[in-house]
Design goal:
- The protein has 179 residues and is of the alpha+beta class.
- The chain has helices spanning 2-26, 73-80, 83-86, 138-148, and strands spanning 59-63, 66-70, 90-95, 110-112, 117-120, 132-135, 151-154.
- The strands form two sheets. A four-stranded antiparallel beta sheet has the order 2-1-3-4, covered by helices on one side. Strands 6-5-7 form a three-stranded antiparallel beta sheet, covered by helices on one side.
- Bound molecules: copper (I) ion (CU1).
Length: 179
């Protein structure tokens, strides 16, 4: 009797632990960490430069251990796309450029990077890497692309090749290969 009780208890505890572990791995119940403000002295987690010195949307990765900040959305993706970083329990944020000026993106306009719409190859300068403009709404991204050039991509379509500053110039209607 005692033995069998002990067995069932252990069994159910194990099942619970397995369920919890499975839950974490699935990522669908990902914990959400709140965005943090950018400060004038903040340095980019990747390049170490002062983030406030650059125009364009920034990124941040917030987790249990605090926030990592990036001088540009492209720099944030360049970091996150590394295999050792992708599995981290973090929430990614970028600026909604429909609610910010390009020169000084505002902390109130930080949005979930995984849900955002991006325009790559726009005719505007950011910090490191390709200018990757981020928007909360698709219509804002389309309006921006119509004005500044570039094409619309979603979070899952962004890879390291796309982050190269000149990658968009290899698009079909570039036509400036021969100088
Ligand atoms: Cu940087």
């Amino acid at each position: 009797m005692l033995n069998s009780n002990g067995f069932y208890l252990k069994g159910s505890l194990m099942a619970l632990l397995l369920a919890l572990a499975g839950c974490n791995d699935a990522g669908s119940d990902r914990q959400v960490y709140e965005p943090v403000a950018f400060h004038s002295g903040d340095e980019c987690h990747v390049c170490g430069m002062a983030i406030g010195d650059f125009p364009g949307p920034k990124g941040e990765a917030v987790g249990k251990q605090g926030a990592m900040k990036f001088c540009s959305t492209a720099e944030m993706f360049g970091w996150w796309l590394q295999p050792e970083n992708r599995g981290q329990d973090i929430t990614l944020y970028v600026h909604d450029m429909a609610r910010s000026t390009w020169e000084k993106p505002h902390d109130d306009a930080l949005i979930d990077a995984r849900q955002a719409f991006y325009v790559v190859g726009a005719n505007l300068k950011g910090a490191m890497g390709a200018a990757l403009a981020s928007f909360a709404r698709e219509e804002d991204a389309k309006a921006f692309a119509a004005k500044q050039g570039g094409r619309l991509v979603r979070f899952g379509q962004i890879d390291l090749a796309l982050l190269q500053p000149d990658s968009h110039q290899a698009e079909p209607h570039g036509g400036t290969a021969a100088h």
